[in-house]
Amino acid sequence: MLELQLFLFFLLVCLLILHYLKQLWSIRHYPSGPLLLPGIGGLWRVATGVSHDTLIKLAKQYGNIYTIWAGPLPLVILSGFQAVKEGLINHSEASAERLETPFLRDALKNRGFVFANGHSLKQQRRFGLITLRKLGLGKKGMEQQIEVEAQQLVETLEHAKGQPLDPSLPITNSVCNVISVLAFGQRFSLEDEDFQKLVKAIYVLSKFGATFFQILYDAVPWLMKYLPGPHKKAFSCVEMARSFAKKEIERHKENQTLHEPQDFIDFYLVQMQKAENDPDSAYNDDNLAQCTIDLFAAGTETTATSLKWALLLMVTHQEIQDKVHKEIEDVFGSSRLICYQDRKKLPYISAVIHEIQRFKYIFFYGLARQTTKDVNMCGVHIPKGTIIVPDLRSVLLDSEHWETPEEFNPNHFLDKDGEFVAREEFLAFGAGARACIGEQLARIELFIFFTSLMRAFTFQLPAGVKELRQDPVMGIVTPPQPYKLCAIPQCTI
Ligand code: HEM
Q1: Fewest CB within 10 A of the end CB: N or C in the chain?
Q2: 429 alpha carbon to ligand 1 midpoint, in Å?
Q3: Which pLDDT score, from 0 to 100, does residue 49 have?
Q4: Domain boundary assignment for the chain
C-alpha cells in the first residue's frame, strides 16, 4: 500500500514537472517577461499589488511589448505610444476581438457592444456608431439635453451655498441622466426602485471583473456552475439588468414612433423591422437589451470619473483655475447656455480638459483584446489567440512624447500662440477597430459640464484642509478618493 502511495506521489511530481517544462518550452513563442514560476507563472512580480509603476518598471526591463504569465495564461502588455499604436492601429484587424472567457460567454452570450466579437459585433457596432451620431444631431439632440443637465448640476451645487460638499453623487446622477435619455428616452428618478437596482447591478458587475471568483469560474466553469459564490450574484445582476432593459423595450414597442425615433431603443426597433427578412441579421431583442446596458455601463462611470478628477485638479491647481475663469470671462458676457461650438473660442479650456484626461486617466490600463491571427508587432512575434493588454495609461504618461508627463500641464495641448493642438498620442478613448464608440458624446459632455461648472463657481478647499489625496481608488476604473470641496458662486467673489 505504501509503495502504491509513493508511486502515485512520484507520478504526480513527474507530471507537474513535465507540465512546468512544457510551459517553459511554450514561452519561446511569446515576448519575454518575468521568470515563470510553477503554478503562479509571472504573477510574483505583481504579488504586492499591481501598481502602474510596476508596469512601467516591467516595460523598462523587458521592452515595450512583454508577457506576464497569469498562471498558464500569457498576457502580452503593450506599453507606451509606439507599441500601442503598432498593436491597435497598424494591426487593427488582428487585434479587433475582445477576449472571450467562460464567464463572459455564459453571462453575455456574445451580445452587445463591449464583450462581443464577430458578425454580431460588426453589425451592432456599425449601427451603434451611426445611431449615436444621429442622436447627437437635430433639434432634440443630446447636446441640448447635456446643457439642461449641466444647468441642473450647477443648481444642485448652488444649494450647498459654498459649504463643503462631496460632488461625486450629483456628478454621477447628471451623467447617468444623459445616458438614460439617450438609451431609454427618459430620466429616472433617484427614488425609482428598479432604476436603483440597475445602477447597483452594474456596480456589482464592474467590481466582479478580475476578482478571484471570476478567475476561478474561468478556470473551472463546469464546476463553478454548480457551486455557490459571488459568481452567482454576478449572473443574477446580468439577468436583472437585462430584464430592466427588456421592460423598457416592451414599453417602446407599445408606444413606438417609427417615423420619429427619439432614442437608441427606437432607432434599434426600426432597424430590426428593416432587417426582418435578412437571414444574416443579428438585430434582435436580446442584442438590443445588452447594447442599451452596455451604453449605460460604459457611458456613466467613465465620464463621471473624469469630471470628478476635473474638479479635484482645479482645487489643487488654483493658477490653472484662474486662467480658465479668465478665458470664460473674456469670451462670455451673457448668461446664455454653453454649447459645444463654443470650444473653438476657448482653446485654453479645451487644453485643460484634455490634460485632465491625460494626467488622471480613468482606466487602470484599458480594455483587453485578443489576437485573431499570428502577428508581428514591432519585430515581436505574438501567436493567434493571445490576450493583449494595451496599457493606455502608459501612452498618456510616455516620457518620449509628453514634455512633462508627471505634471498637470495644459501646455501639452497648446501651441506657442495659445491655440489648441490635438495630439496623436492622446489615446484616452483607445484606437483602431474597437475604439470607444461614445467618444464624441463624452467629449461634448466633458466640455459642457466642465465649462458650465467653471463659469458658475470657483472651487476651493474647505477651511482647514491643506491638500487632497491624488492617488486613485484602484479598480478597472480609477476614480479619486472621496473628497469635499467648496463651490463658491462666481458672482459673490
Ligand atoms: C471620458 C469618457 C470615456 C472614456 C475615457 C472612454 C474610453 C474607452 C476606452 C479606452 C474603450 C476601449 C477602447 C479600445 O479597446 O481601444 C472604450 C470602449 C467603449 N466605450 Fe468608451 N469611454 C468614455 C465614454 C463612453 C461613453 C459616454 C459611451 C457611451 C455612450 C462609451 C461607450 C463605449 C463602448 C460601447 C465601448 C466598447 C466598444 C467596443 O468594444 O467595440 N464610452 N471606451
Answers
A1: N
A2: 6
A3: 63
A4: 72-492
CA separation (Å) from 156 to 75, 142, 258?
45, 21, 36
Ligand 1 center to 124 CA (angstroms): 14
The grid cell for 454 is 467653471
Q: Which of ligand 1's atoms lies nearest the C-alpha of 362?
A: 5
pLDDT at residue 493 in the model: 41
Quote the pLDDT of residue 138: 58
Q: What is the DSSP letter of 455?
A: H
Q: What is the pLDDT of residues 130-160, one digit of tens each?
A: 999 988 765 567 888 999 999 999 999 999 9
pLDDT at 336: 65
- The stretches in the chain having pLDDT less than 70 are 46-50, 137-140, 257-258, 333-336, 491-493
Phi, psi of 478 (to 5 degrees): -120, 80
Ligand 1 centroid–CA 325 distance in Å is 30
CATH architecture of 72-492: Orthogonal Bundle (1.10)
Cα distances from 88 to residues 212, 369, 422, 463, in angstroms, run 29, 9, 19, 47
